[in-house]
Design a protein that fits this description.
The structure holds two protein chains of two kinds. By secondary structure, chain A is mainly alpha-helical. Chain A has three helices and no strands. Classes of the chains: A mainly alpha, B mainly alpha. The interface between A and B is medium-sized, with 34 and 33 residues.
Chain lengths: ~90, ~120
């Protein structure tokens, strides 16, 4: 009598469960090759711009001793606040 | 569809046996030790039921290309992309804003103080 319940549970329920999660996983946040390319380019561009900005600030500071970048480049305490702000904006958008 | 940086590989170089655990660690950004401990716990819980899956994964997954990332920073970046692309996009935007703000500082400095003009005036005196 018990086998009547157990066999369908395993034969139908288990594949159902697995397929359900596979479809959930497939439709979840997947990024395409284009997105990947874009993220790669943005990463490299941001890195280059950061480096260039460092150079420019150093050059200006070397020419003019009174020039002090008010916010020092890539300072963790600044970046933390900026990320926090960005996260809040992102949450608001969703 | 097969995007190079967002596929799961097996990391033979850092692996212990076939590099499946190291590959998962590299993919997710979780320390390889925790992945291995989790795998061992799974083996214990299923009384060896997952071992065939390990070797199946070891056979099916491709080896990680040797020069996928230039440095550790890039590797970390792609781990974050795989965790959440939206968050990474926001972080990139934050970096651009950062550069924009710093450039504005330099611009403001040149516009307001104009050091070259004051230097010329000094020379004329």
């Amino acid at each position: 009598m018990e086998a009547v319940f157990i066999v369908p549970t395993i034969a139908i329920g288990l594949p159902w469960l697995i397929l359900h999660y596979i479809t959930r996983w497939k439709t979840a946040a997947t990024i395409t090759t284009d997105d990947e390319q874009l993220l790669e380019e943005l990463y490299q561009l941001a890195k280059r711009l950061d480096d260039r900005m460092d150079t420019v600030e150093r050059l200006v500071a070397a020419d003019n001793p009174d020039f002090k970048p008010r916010i020092l480049p890539d300072l963790e305490s600044d970046n933390q606040k900026l990320r926090e702000l960005d996260r809040l904006i992102g949450n608001k958008g969703n | 569809m097969t995007s190079e940086r967002t596929t799961l590989y097996r990391d033979k170089q850092n692996g212990k046996l076939m590099g499946v655990c190291a590959g998962i660690a590299d993919y997710t950004g979780v320390n390889a030790l925790w992945v291995r401990l989790g795998a061992l716990m799974l083996v214990g819980m299923t009384s060896g039921g997952v071992i065939p899956f390990y070797f199946l994964a070891g056979l099916l997954l491709n080896k990680k290309p040797a020069h996928l990332y230039v440095d550790a920073q890039e590797q970390k970046y792609w781990q974050r992309v795989r965790q959440s692309p939206a968050r990474t996009a926001r972080e990139i935007r934050a970096r651009f804003r950062d550069v924009d703000r710093r450039l504005a500082e330099v611009e403001t400095y040149y516009v307001t103080s104009n050091p070259r003009l004051s230097a010329e005036i000094e020379r004329l005196r």
